[in-house]
Amino acid sequence: MHLLNTLYLTTPETYLRLENQTLAIEQNQELKLRVPLHHLNAVVCFGHIQLSTPLMHTLAQQGIALVLLDANGRFQARLEGPMAGNVLLRQAQHRASCDRDLTLALARSFVAGKIRNARSLLQRGAREARNDADADALTRRAQNLAASLRALPGCGTLDELRGIEGEAAREHFAGLSLLVRPDAREHFSMQGGRSRRPPRDRLNALLSFLYSLWMNDCRSALEAVGLDPQVGFLHALRPGRAALALDLVEEFRPQAERLALTLINRQQMQADDFAAREGGAISLQPDARKAVLVAYQERKQDPLQHPLLAQPVALGLVPLIQARLLARAVRGEADADGQAAGYVPFLIK
């Protein structure tokens, strides 16, 4: 299945090796599991995971991505075989990145999707709030995000667009702690807004971890349809930066936030599931990381109705659908009315 073909390794000092056409997983020189390679599309390693060279060669030859993250989920490296995909699509993508109007239009769509989904999250929180003060505060912030959406069509430059996106993000994060159940806010609230490198509180640490999982899935989706994840439109191009994956993941960030809030509000995440590190960083404990990964994989199987499809699809397949829609927009394909097909972001309800 598309949703269950990523193997996550989180236990430190685990050793991975090739055994015929299976991936063998050892801990303390004891075999724990064998996974047939034909079941895998990606292997994601957190922290100090060891791999044999023959295994790395075979993964590359069979087109199975090997992703190395640090213990907190921050990207370190990715090993892949020869580049696949449609070279004509990549050529069109590179031309589009040099087209000022098309770049601005695509970037505006990514930002609109992010703000709309963030606003939906706040509106839902306002409806379910346990007291009037929280409901009023969340409603005001949702209204401010609506104002940001109204300002997007008037943006004439990427800098203007990024400015609106940044202000909307600050507004959203300022309200996010109000979506945490009141008796958990002592331990799960944003202290001073969004902090990333490193996360300075438990809520930021949990969000960073979930964002990194969505980021990896978005990058894989882009590569699956033949797009170059390095060449983006909203995010500036930098060496080693997966700018297009960062573009695509924007509309999925509220999905990560919804799962984080669910885990906290259902008391599946406790304060002692996190540890303070040197320098003030907060990170998930190993067992908590595993619990989040299980919840993430389960959430990806949730069925939903995509607005452009006639039948329900699993949430985990939506990045692939969006990547295909993006490829269509990059190629300049026409829609049913004969107009150039723009990119339509995925909106949550």
From TrEMBL:
Binding positions (Mn(2+)): 165, 235, 250
EC number: 3.1.-.-
Pfam families for this protein: Cas_Cas1 (PF01867)
Keywords, alphabetical: Antiviral defense, DNA-binding, Endonuclease, Hydrolase, Magnesium, Manganese, Metal-binding, Nuclease
Top-level class of the enzyme under EC nomenclature: hydrolase
Cofactors (names): Mg(2+); Mn(2+)
Domain of life: Bacteria
A GO term, aspect molecular function: endonuclease activity
Subunit structure, interactors included: Homodimer, forms a heterotetramer with a Cas2 homodimer.
NCBIfam families in alphabetical order: cas1 (TIGR00287), cas1_DVULG (TIGR03640)
Described purpose of this protein according to its UniProt entry: CRISPR (clustered regularly interspaced short palindromic repeat), is an adaptive immune system that provides protection against mobile genetic elements (viruses, transposable elements and conjugative plasmids). CRISPR clusters contain spacers, sequences complementary to antecedent mobile elements, and target invading nucleic acids. CRISPR clusters are transcribed and processed into CRISPR RNA (crRNA). Acts as a dsDNA endonuclease. Involved in the integration of spacer DNA into the CRISPR cassette.
Family per record: Belongs to the CRISPR-associated endonuclease Cas1 family.
Name this polypeptide is given: CRISPR-associated endonuclease Cas1
Annotated organism of origin: Pelomonas margarita
